[in-house]
Amino acid sequence: MLENYLPVLVLIGIAVAFAVGSVVMSGLIGMKKPSAVKLAPYECGMPLVGSARERFSVKFYIIAMLFILFDIEAVFLYPWAVMFKRLGMFGFVEMGVFIAILLVGFIYVWKKGALEWE
Amino acid sequence: MENLAQIAMESVNFQAIMPSLVLCCFGMVLLLVSVFLERGRTAPICWLSIIGLVVTGIISINGWNDPQAGFAGGVVLDNFATFFNLTCLIAAGLTILMSDSYLHREGYPVAEYYPLILFTTAGAMWMASGTDLMTIFLGLEVLSVSLYVLAGFFRGQLRSNEAGLKYFFLGAFSTGFMLYGVALLYGVTGTTKVAGIAEAIRLMPDASSNPMIIAGAILLSIGFLFKIGAAPFHMWTPDVYQGAPTPITAFMSAGPKAAAFAAFMRVTYISLDSLQVDMSAMFWVLAVLTMTIGNFVAIAQKDVKRMLAFSSISHAGYALVGMVAWNEVGFSGILFYMLVYTFMNIGAFAVLVLIGKQGEDNLTLDGMAGLGYKRPFLGVAMAIFLFSLMGLPPTAGFTGKFFIFAGALKAGYVWLAILGVLNSAVSLYYYLRVMVYMYFRDPVEDFSWVKMEMATIVSILIAIAGVLYLGVLPGPVMELAKLSIF
Amino acid sequence: MYSNLWLIPFFPLVGSIINGLFGKKIKNEKVIGGIATIAIFLSFLVSCQNFFRLLGDTEKVHQQILGSWMSIGILNVEWGFLLDPLSALMIMVVTGVGSLIHLYSIGYMHGETGFYRFFSYLNLFCFSMLMLVLGNNALVMFIGWEGVGLCSYLLIGYYFEKKSAGDAAKKAFVVNRIGDFGFLCGLFTLFWALGSKGVWTLNFVEISENAHLLQSGGLLVTVVTLCFFLGATGKSAQIPLYTWLPDAMEGPTPVSALIHAATMVTAGIYMIARMNILFAMSPTTMMVIAFVGAATALFAASIGFAQNDIKRVLAYSTVSQLGFMFMAMGVGAFTAGIFHLMTHAFFKACLFLGSGSVIHGMHHAYHHAHLHDDPQDMRNMGGLRKFMPITWITYLLSCLAIAGMPFFAGFFSKDEILWWTFASTRGSYLVWIIGTIAACMTAFYMFRSLYMTFHGEQRTDVRAKDHIPESPWVITLPLIILAGLATIAGFIGIPHAIDVAHVGNGIASFLDPVFGQAQQLHNIGIPEDLAHNVGLEIGLMCMSVVIGLIGIGGAYYMYMKKQELPAKFTGAFPGLHKAVFNKWYIDELYDFLFVNPCKKIGTFLWKGFDVCVVDGVVNGIGWVVKGLASGLRYTQSGFLHNYAMIMVVGVVVIVGYYIFG
Amino acid sequence: MISVYHYMILSAILFAIGSFGVLTRKNMIVIFMCIELMLNSVNLTFIALSRHLGNMDGQIFVFFVMTVAAAEAAVGLALIIAFYRNKESIEVDDFRLLKW
Description:
The structure holds four protein chains of four kinds. Helix content of chain A is 69%, strand content 0%. By secondary structure, chain A is an all-alpha fold. Chain A folds into two domains: 2-29; 58-112, NADH:ubiquinone/plastoquinone oxidoreductase, chain 3 (Methane Monooxygenase Hydroxylase, Chain G, domain 1). In chain A, helix 3 packs antiparallel against helix 4 (84-112). Chain B has helices at 3-11, 14-36, 43-62, 79-106, 113-129, 133-151, 158-189, 194-203, 211-228, 236-243, 246-271, 276-299, 304-325, 328-355, 371-374, 376-390, 396-410, 414-440, 454-472, 475-483, and strands at residues 68-70, 75-77. Chain B contains 20 helices and two strands. Chain B has one domain (3-483). Chain D is mainly alpha-helical. Chain D has three helices and no strands. The radius of gyration of chain D is 17 Å and the shape is elongated. Chains in contact: A-B, A-D, B-C, B-D, C-D. Chains B and C meet through helix 7, helix 9, helix 10, helix 12 and helix 14 of B and strand 1, helix 5, helix 6, helix 23 and helix 24 of C.
């Protein structure tokens, strides 16, 4: 059975060897004349604006942190959603409480102004 | 189809989490209120949080002798939990009392401080009443995360930053170990329930030679040992205690430590009962190591706050003696000692809160010179707390230590008791030095900046009352401690 | 019936609290001193009542339980008091001598800053001492034990602006804590040892009843009693923990009299007496006690030779006398030891108060003349008996008592001790010989101090010499009472051999309920053949009197003749100066042959042994601890990585040990 | 066949890598990521064991660990930012005020 596929395997082997071999060979024997333009990342031929290692505003961190916090709570929604029908009203109320607690945090964050960009 | 909701509903028992539930609600409401108040107005929040603590305390006391279990056996509100709940509430109350003027003096009148303390306390209460490693873990984390913030609360101060970061990194690191231990125990026993683990281990023929159980038990213990500051997991303690805001240091050394002991005791005494021989031996070594390191290094300290941090390590060592004893006397001794320690240590820190200048650079031994004459009340208060920390009768420190050491003696650990006594003899040296500076040195400064803040004084007075009451008439409370053992 | 026992410590406590809290506002010295004195005097009255009631009672052991203190599963510790002949005698001494010293202090401390503080501490001390004595269990005793240490510390450091006072206070506290460590170790070991036999108790009565559960002469009971003895050496200033006591003289003189002579330093003796049944079970410990006591008695007496500070002489004399008491305990002469404790309290308190009176006078004179000479240096005194006749008489009587001259108090008690060291079943001739030599030396240096202070030529600076007043009545009255007691108190313990009137040995029969059982059970006592050998006992008695006389005579010869003769001769017969010089030469030779070696040894022991070796060891331990502390301190490097690393190492070691070990 | 032991070993290796990272890395963010790695290796253990034992407790535990890790991440990052504002650095060796 399986031996029918052997040629395919061989073909794949050859393909990989060729690809790797040509990259390695060109690296080994090709001429290297690096210049600033050649080394620059390819950005559709546009000149560079500046370094990518720029300082981000701290706002990003705050937003990121808030995102993590609220995002991760969604993890509890999945199992609840799966069982929603079987849990019925009880489950609904429970999740309501959970959301309400999150809401407290949300109101706090909002009032603190953490969501405003400026 | 209906029975799933039925089961879930039946397992819910709000009675079992009532105290911490109330406290959390208070915390959340206060958090919301705080954002609507103008910046710098913290007094209402402060008093509301005290009310919250009192209400929680009343609810806790009502639950005495009325054990409630709930949430599929994950939580139980028994006398043991209630005793620790009250200890933590007292710690939080005393801390909050001394905090408000302190926050204003240090320039951080931020209202979130109080809800955070309430959340910490709620976490501590979950730890005390958790009977599932999951709830214990959750309590531990609620407590820790709030404490990380509180330790680094003075965000413009490098020292506070450093304290918060060190606590955070090492705390998270130890959590990793603890969780790994839980995972291993879960793998062997198939459950995370405290009682279930005990059952499974008991049924295993050679539990104490099963590497997974041993490794699991030890790694699990490490989470708790880290929180109580036992050597060699104590390294964070001095740095964090020194860098954190002083009331937080006071709180950290009492409430969370008590909670960690509570959970630790429940887990070791119930789950790991079959491993008693091995665990006791480990605690023996750690207890001696902890008290010795704490006491010896404290001798070399000039900063009083840092010295008290080392002293708190050594007191964790004394309390561990009760774990070694592994009998009712030792365990109820820990309960009692934690309460005693709450009063005496928070009291001592409260005095430091009052005599500190802004920035608190004067809390060195030299800075204490002549305090006893310039500020007689603070001098006497500090002296009482120091005597209690030394373990001299008739203060609570003596009765507490005696209680614990009696447990060790009952279990036959004479050497441990003697090492404990030897250690308290060593500890005398550095406590006494503070006294010498306070009373036998000429005042360098006039302590004119010291404002006798009413709330802080109240907290000092409560602490003095506690120390003396538990020293002279500890009978009733000891009785409660004995009744609190599961 | 004995339900007012609690009042005895209660009054001084109240006095202390009143003075401590309101003394600063009261200001009036008479009121402050009055409150304190009345407080202790009231407890003296209550003590008297209980004492005499106990005298007439057939039941000799009474407990009053105020309530439960600690109840910890296995045991219930009470706030309780125990009145038996031993504690009854002790409370009489403490409150009696205490009252007199309070009265004295009103005069002595007049005008001092912190007058109220002094009386508050003094009352607090009395409270603690009474708790120590009356406690019916070891923990209540321990409260008193720590309390007296604390008060002693506070009072030694009373002149805290003097650095030496602060240092002395600290030294006293630290050395005492070494002793306390021994006490606690003994306590815990005993607690556990009895507990493992099923009796968890700390109550003295119950300990005595159950002591038989322990193996007599066994290792355990020896360890327990040795630990307790270590505690006793700390409190009672015995080798090796005696060094704090001479330094403690930095405190005011009444404090030295009350705490460092009459009461607190006897706590160790009291504790051994209280647990006599345990000590009787261990001959090894008893022997150690006897020899340590004897060594201390001799050693401290020899140091007393070389002292010129009047209070230091008395301090070393106290150490030496305490050594006698320990000797008594060690040879099983519990009664004699307690007897000596009592007589010593009288004559030593009198001596200290007398020296205080002298210092007070000298200080006054120097103050008058604006001089800054040392008012405590005996070389500045001499001939004071003209100025302070009452002080002189009382000092003389007490010196006679301490030297053991016949029919003074010290004669009875010291002879009883020496007789027991000689004749007891636990006695030893070596101890007896050492004791006798020490007694001789005691007579010598005590009379030396007497002569140097009150007799001979006055060596005070001329500007001050005529301004030395006799002290006021609040100072002399206690002196007179104490001197009277030092003279007659001995008659309550007349030894059998010279009891011609057959009044009996009152103190022995009084204390018999406390000590009799232990002595009977463990065969401690005077063997039959010796007990009836009246001739031998009287012979020894005479011998010790003669030895005392030799000491006095020696002192007289060296400190009276040598001082006076040269001056007389040079004044009256200038031509005979050479002869005087020759006389001097003989004295010098004598000095060279006898006195100087003694002095040298004394100085050597003081400077060399005391300062270098003992202090060296104490300091050495301090250095080691400090070194260790600063070494360990550097593990706390501040680097997060190190902390995490230590945690990981801890985890790996523990897990590794359990899994692979 | 891949059994629960393989998962256990993998998670143990991950845990070791994580703790090694904590001990050696200087950058606080990286240290924090290493701690997260440790927590996730624990999660892996739980999931594997839960599957192996046929018991859901482990998976529930994982939910909580994840939530807690998120909360810790938020607090940790906040602390790091506060420190960075004062000291312009996120190297752990740059805080050493508190020592000895």
